[in-house]
Design goal:
Layout lengths: L1 H37 L36 H4 L12 H9 L5 H8 L8 E5 L2 H11 L4 E2 L16 E2 L3 E3 L3 H4 L3 H4 L4 H10 L20 H13 L4 H11 L3 H4 L9 E5 H5 L1 H7 L7 E4 L5 H9 L1 E4 H18 L5 H24 L6 E5 L1 H4 L10 H11 L1 H15 L3 H10 L6 H13 L5 E8 L4 E8 L3 H10 L2 E4 L8 H7 L22 E6 L18 H14 L6 E6 L2 H13 L2 H8 L2 E3 L6 H12 L13 E6 L17 E5 L9 H17 L18 H19 L10 E6 L6 H4 L4 H4 L9 E3 L7 E3 L2 E3 L5 E3 L3 H26 L1
Parallel strand pairs: 1-5, 1-6, 4-5, 6-11, 12-17, 13-15, 13-16, 14-15, 16-17
Antiparallel strand pairs: 2-3, 7-10, 8-9, 9-10, 18-21, 19-20
Helix pairs in contact: 1-9, 9-10, 15-16, 15-19, 15-21, 18-21, 19-20, 19-21, 24-26, 28-29
Length: about 800
């Protein structure tokens, strides 16, 4: 009986799979013939609607910006069932209605789709370019069929290759094909305009002509089958929609259920509102998150919020201009809520204006009640206010009217005032709406801050999410499995403690792989001392020492002649880089370095593309290719800057990466203090910190261990990202030099990736350079270190010379090997 049931299920699965494959195969064959005939891609007979650019966007009357009559959360909006909108019902009520047989609108939509929800893999990454690289690799794969030829039905063909049914999801910015919307540029403005063009009250001519509808369901099916017929990247999906004349942003949604693999960027997966808008469910599916070292910051950024004093002032000006125009035409409820919004804006604005200090920078943690201390603000129901802002689309209406008024205004003075207020890419009331949402849901997982910057002449309020696990938990609990992937995820403690604090250790598996390069292709060394014996101590209190900065320059002057081709040097911050460069210019050190290799300097104002182009052309110039000159170039940048992540300094572009100091976070900032306090509280409650890790008492929590580990993890994760810029393929080779005595500490070295630690040379210690003489002891005439003390060589100068000899031998060997190969 078991064999019979298994056979029936297998035949049913095979039949359904072959039917679907037959449809996709027909499309593949048709596309192949078209390509062979015209080399122009998809047959233009599917191009139902022309997509030529509109020269002008039709101007609508002012009445389009008028708010609809608003009915607050009464029976008319909240108690409807059976196909009506149920978004304002509580979760418990909706579940009860579904159990009673009254399906909600969302579940009705799902039932209308007859496609089987295939077991699928969601692959999520930070940018579309990273997903495009994945798509390129998928095209190289040929997976043999899971069914043997004899298991196929006689009336259905056998497919020897399992074609991957993949679909790429993206934002409107990447997929919109309406030229009048695309030319807006800003993602927020494109989203607002797209929603506006879907307004049910608009005439057919005023709506987006590419929006899928019931009348063109056949076209939607064509799009779905074309999208699944082969592996597409996001640009090809957009082109497919353009050729078929249907919006790819919305037309991709029906293709998700039958797909086996879905690629999408971070926001579409990590934001609950985005998943609900797309109808995505990860229940019982596999989720792979690439570039996962960004995951914690990405979640915190998505659910955090901030608003400046200038934006609050602009919000009030725009809202008052709107009220002045439409006051007599607004229904009573609208006037009530607009008055409440003004009171909240005035309360936030009054707080910032009262606390503003022009003479110095300042920041502090505050409570939500302090921000809502304005007149009568305590009588406002913020939940209802957020509901009103979302339902009425007030931000879009007000922003649209002010833009319209600026275009129509003939009075230069008034036009200038309104135009200046409309320079925001995102409607300012949308920013206000996001901040009020945080105010309405204050939790212990978040903190509010005010930040005053005298240099930027800006004061702002900020909500910082302290616990990203709360917003990631729904994905974790619903998915079949979660896989976090990254090239430089070490150290991994933060992922366990901040993303999965509620999971037992048995449910979390970590794996670190060796690099594809052989060990002899990598030279890794710490350098605790300069060439003259000066100890490298780039801590915040010591790094501005003129003697140490000059010693750093002289050390580079001695090392650079031994290094082939391109050298990338990373400093801990732009501010410290400016200090070093200023002294080097005054002492002619920078001129001496430039005489060895041309120097290119990154800054916050420089054009990155131009900088990289000039650096690359210098390295590959004929003079730089000479083995006798070995000129190359030096690129000076900053850890955490634009060149420390996502850039490939492969082969000659990065034969050596030098890291100066450790990019320690600002431990004195209020935000870091709040985060550290939260981590300490959680660690103390769950004993995540092992006893005796730094001399603690057995069985007792040692205050400060968790927060210090968190700071070290932030620092070393940034360092690992920077040094990972050099080794980019299996035949690549490079050197990695870490300039700072703290890199000698075992605790810091333990946070380097395993493949780097294996190539890290251990110099024989015989002397101690210690910050605390009481922490060391004398044994047989040789001082040994305890705790955080730093071991160096016989003396600093000898240690440097030993490292220099090894470095010279490494590059000499590589130079000879390359010459032989050439």
């Amino acid at each position: 009986m078991q064999e019979a049931i298994s056979k029936n299920k297998k035949e049913e699965l095979l039949h359904r799979r072959n039917e679907f494959e037959a449809k996709l195969e027909a499309i593949r064959q048709r596309e192949k013939k078209i390509q062979e005939r015209s080399h122009r891609g998809i047959d233009h007979k599917y191009k139902k609607i022309k997509t030529e650019d509109d020269d002008k966007v039709t101007r609508e009357a002012e009445s389009q910006f008028l708010l609809d009559d608003y009915v607050s959360d009464d029976e008319e909006r909240s108690t409807t069932v059976c196909g009506q909108e149920n978004g304002h019902l509580s979760k418990e009520t909706r579940l009860l209605l579904e159990k009673a047989g009254f399906a909600t609108q969302v579940s009705s939509r799902v039932e209308e789709n007859d496609d089987v929800d295939e077991l699928k893999i969601f692959i999520c990454s930070r940018t579309h370019s990273q997903l495009s690289q994945l798509v390129g690799e998928l095209r190289r794969i040929e997976i043999p069929s899971a069914f043997s030829p004899d298991s196929s039905s006689k009336d259905l063909p056998h497919y020897p290759i399992e074609n991957i049914k993949q679909v790429s999801l993206g934002s409107r910015k990447n997929l919109c094909i309406n030229e009048s919307v695309k030319r807006l540029g800003s993602v927020a403005m494109m989203n607002e305009r797209c929603l506006e063009l879907q307004d049910s009250k608009k005439s057919l001519a005023g709506k987006c002509k590419f929006m899928p509808s019931k009348e063109d369901q056949g076209l939607s099916l064509d799009f779905k089958h074309h999208a699944l017929s082969k592996v597409h990247d996001i640009e090809e999906i957009a082109l497919l929609g353009k050729n078929l004349g249907i919006c790819p942003y919305y037309a991709t949604r029906p293709a998700v259920r039958p797909a086996e693999l879905v690629t999408l960027p971070y926001p579409l997966l990590l934001q609950k509102s985005a998943r609900e808008a797309l109808g995505l469910s990860v229940r019982d599916h596999v989720v792979i998150i690439d570039e996962a070292h960004n995951l914690i910051d990405a979640i915190s950024g998505m659910y955090g919020s901030e608003i400046t004093l200038r934006q609050l002032q602009t919000s009030r000006q725009q809202l008052m201009a709107y009220l002045q125009k439409f006051r007599d035409r607004l229904a009573g409820k609208n006037r009530v809520y607009l008055a409440q919004i003004l009171r909240v804006i005035d309360s936030l604005r009054a707080f910032l204006e009262a606390e503003k200090i022009q003479s110095k920078d300042d920041e502090s943690s505050i409570s939500a009640s302090e921000l809502l201390a304005g007149p009568s603000v305590d009588q406002i129901n913020l939940y209802k206010l957020v509901d009103y802002l979302q339902s009425s689309k007030l931000a879009r209406k007000v922003h649209g009217y002010n833009t319209f008024a600026a275009q129509e205004q003939t009075d230069d003075k008034i036009q200038s005032s309104i135009s200046n207020n409309n320079n925001e890419q995102t409607p300012v009331l949308s920013i206000f709406q996001n901040f009020v949402l945080a105010l309405a849901n204050p939790t212990k997982e978040g903190r509010f801050f005010y930040i005053k910057s005298a240099s930027a002449q800006e004061t702002k309020l900020k909500f910082l999410l302290l616990d990203p696990s709360k917003h990631f938990r729904e994905i974790v609990e619903n998915a079949r499995s979660i896989i976090l992937v990254g090239g430089t995820m070490s150290p991994m403690d933060d992922y366990r403690n901040q993303l999965f604090p509620y999971l037992p250790a048995s449910r979390i598996t970590t794996m670190s792989c060796n690099h594809v390069i052989p060990p002899e292709n990598l030279f890794v060394s710490t350098l605790p001392t300069a060439s003259n014996g000066q100890r490298f101590d780039f801590t915040f209190s010591s790094r501005n020492s003129s003697a140490m900065i000059e010693s750093l320059g002289q050390t580079l002057i001695k090392l650079l002649p031994s290094i082939l081709d391109g050298v990338v040097i990373f400093f801990p911050s732009y501010s410290y880089l400016d200090v070093v460069l200023k002294q080097w210019r005054n002492s002619s050190t920078l001129t001496a370095i430039s005489s060895i290799k041309p120097v290119f300097i990154d800054s916050q104002s420089v054009d990155t593309e131009v900088l990289l182009r000039d650096y690359t052309s210098t390295i590959f110039s004929p003079s730089s290719s000479s083995t006798t000159k070995n000129q190359g170039a030096v690129l000076i940048s900053v850890i955490g800057g634009r060149l420390s992540e996502g850039i490939n300094f492969s082969d000659r572009l990065g034969r050596c990466v030098i890291v100066i100091g450790l990019p320690w976070p600002n431990t004195n900032s209020e935000e870091f203090k709040a985060k550290s306090a939260f981590i300490e509280e959680r660690a103390k409650a769950s004993f995540l910190v092992p006893p005796n890790s730094t001399g603690g008492v057995e069985g007792k929590y040692v205050l400060g261990i968790a927060s210090r580990s968190h700071a070290e993890n932030i620092c070393m994760r940034a360092v690992n990202q920077a040094i990972g810029r050099a080794i980019r393929h299996k035949n690549d080779w490079a050197g990695i030099l870490l300039f700072d005595a703290r890199y000698e500490q075992e605790r810091i070295q333990g946070k380097l990736p395993g493949w780097i630690r294996k190539s890290l040379y251990s110099y024989p210690p015989s002397s101690l350079s210690s910050s605390s003489s009481s922490a060391s002891s004398l044994q047989g005439g040789v001082r040994t270190a305890k705790g955080g003390d730093v071991l160096v060589g016989i003396d600093g100068k000898n240690r440097f010379e030993e490292m220099q000899r090894r470095l010279y031998a490494f590059y000499k060997d590589k130079s000879n090997v390359n010459a032989t190969v050439a």
